[in-house]
Amino acid sequence: MWQQILQSVRSYDSPQRNVIAASCVLGGGGLLVYWLLSRHRMKTLEMGDGWWGSGVRSPRDKDDEGIRPFQVKTSEKEIQDLYQRLEQARYTPPLEGSAFNYGFNSIYLQKVISYWRNQFDWQKQVKILNQYPHYKTTIEGIEVHFIHVKPSRNLRGLTAKPLLMVHGWPGSFYEFYKIIPLLTDPAGHRLSDEDVVFEVICPSIPGYGFSEAPHQQGFDTIACARIFHKLMQRLGFQEFYIQGGDWGARITTNMAQMLPKSIKGLHLNFVFVPRIGWSGLVSLLLGAYMPWLVGLTREDSRRLFPYFKKHIYDLLRESGYMHIQATKPDTVGCGLNNSPVGLAAYILEKFSTWTDKSFRNLDNGGLERKYSLDELLTNVMIYWVSSSIVSSMRFYKENFAQNPASAPDARINVYVPTGVSAFPNELTHTPRSWAKKKYKNIVTYSYMPRGGHFAAFEEPELLAQDIRQFVRKVEHL
Fold first, then answer.
1. Backbone region of residue 58 per phi and psi (left: phi > 0; alpha: psi in -120 to 50; beta: other values)
2. Is residue 29's pLDDT more than 70?
3. Could you give the angle at the alpha carbon of 362 between the alpha carbons of 356 and 363, nearest 5°?
């Protein structure tokens, strides 16, 4: 075939051959330019649409786009039922000297349950929960719960910046109650940097807390990101900041991949990069000895190594729950939804070890070193009164239904301005050089002096300070 083409070209006279050659050069050059431009064109995550209501969606099923006020309420009947279940609990004695290494120590658990039954004042905590305005709205067939807190003081010429904050598991919107006043009213808390003020929106992930659980299979972080975009659009925000840890980090990352023009900045206190590539493998081989040679800092080296112990063995010790929830969440969920004692043990054990791994060696799991029992039990109560533990666990099943490395968002980079708070006791440490493989515009990367997985709950001042520093830098770009 090529010989025939060459013979045809040779049959043309010289001017005709020159025209053909010029056309080929121009065509090839155009293809080269297109290829170079397409390499740098920002890819985005397809937004799509969804329906998570009960049954098959019909043309008449349209969301009520109204924003409805909501309040946390429970009946006396619910409380008495809780008390009865707490009183009928059975306990298995722990192994001698086991502390929290086998899970929640049942001797300390009895103290927690006694406090819950006899001293914990749920009605007082309900008033605390209701101190911020709660709302619900219907999106894609399900009710989405959120709190929306605006600055209460005169901003004296400043404009409050909208900030969406997203929780993870086994947390809730309540995780942000200590950080919200630091962000919405810095002057009232004697913070020196009053030039950055926020209005904060904290939604409950569908299936968590007071957001309705999806009725259909397949509700993952991408679907949640789309719903939260629709929520912010419904509230009238065209541009806004987003922040998250745990599942909230992946949801907000998906939001930045989906509609980057709407996201002024993305702040994360948990970064997970599924692929570190060959350069990452080389950094693992050499980083403990010559961190500077492979793009690591000394602090990275301190947090990463010995890598097998800190990021393989420790992660295996702490990820058993994930394998259950990513495969058969409903099975274990049946027991947790029926037993408040089991629910408390299952949730609070995470607040122990994920705050500091060394707390495994303490008989009380170190829980009251960082939190009060009132704070911890309020979070447990949100799961109990909403009966949401099973649907919250299903979120793992939906997100691990396929290999995360081959998911639609895995090969899409993030180009919006990004800030990272790297807390030393986080489950895994991701160096800046690794994070840059996915987050291409890291504006701030902070090594936090203390704190673990539940940053907003444990170290609200540190996280608030880092968020303000990040936003201030973005605003001056």
1. beta
2. no
3. 135
